[in-house]
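Query structure, 137 tokens:
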């Protein structure tokens, strides 16, 4: 028996590609402008204000990772409740074989584990950076 294949949605694939490009270009522009701005502040010798800014920016950037983790956990809960991956009526960006039962549950548990690792890594790195910056002030 052939596995059921969920066909890719071309509109979703195009939108995902465009959004990924915008995010990459925006991140590069942000890095460029933010690094020159931070260099200007650090060259003026006001290290305390620079570290305060970093203490605000690092946790703010962590919000993105935590939001992705929340989405991963929601997806995993849907997979567990339906015992199917990808869940029914979910659009995909590439042709994906649908799996049911134990294989789908394994994928959901792996997704939950990765989400937890992402949250723990994000929180610990933000706290570490905050503590390091706080030790200089």
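Result returned for the query:
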């Amino acid at each position: 028996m052939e596995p059921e294949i969920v066909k890719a949605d071309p509109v979703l694939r195009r939108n995902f590609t465009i959004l990924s490009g915008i995010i990459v270009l925006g991140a590069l522009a942000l890095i460029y402008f933010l690094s020159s701005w931070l260099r200007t502040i650090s060259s003026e010798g006001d290290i305390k204000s620079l570290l305060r800014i970093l203490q605000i920016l690092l946790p703010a950037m962590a919000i993105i990772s935590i939001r992705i983790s929340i989405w991963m956990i929601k997806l995993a809960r849907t997979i567990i409740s339906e015992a199917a991956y990808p869940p029914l009526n979910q659009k995909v960006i590439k042709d994906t074989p649908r799996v049911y039962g134990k294989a789908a549950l394994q994928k959901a548990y792996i997704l939950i584990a990765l989400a937890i690792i992402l949250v723990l890594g994000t929180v610990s790195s933000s706290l570490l950076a905050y503590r390091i910056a706080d030790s200089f002030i």
